[in-house]
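Hi W., the FE2/S2 (inorganic) cluster complex you wanted:
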Amino acid sequence: MAWQKVCPLEEIPLLGARVVAHEDGAIAVFRADGDTVFALRDACPHKGGPLSQGIVHGSGESARVTCPLHGWNVDLDSGHACAPDEGCVERYATKVEHAVVWLEV
Ligand code: FES
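Structure:
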């Protein structure tokens, strides 16, 4: 695992995401309210929908993304689908330093 520079924070739309290419599949880097940043594999635990195209809501530990395909909510901090749905998607560590976003992959 190593820290990879993603982009300046301002280049990720607020309540949106940016996709980072990775050899194991795309990773979605989300920017939630309060400029908290999260990263998940860009594949919904339901049927693989692009979470990066979903709407981000909530903040901090309650930040979630709603999948654009069938509306599942996925917890951005844990990668778990919110009840009553079940499943989870791989999560990655992120950090913001001097307004630059980093991803641990
Ligand atoms: S693929 Fe995401 S809710 Fe169905």
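The longest strand covers residues 3-8.

W.
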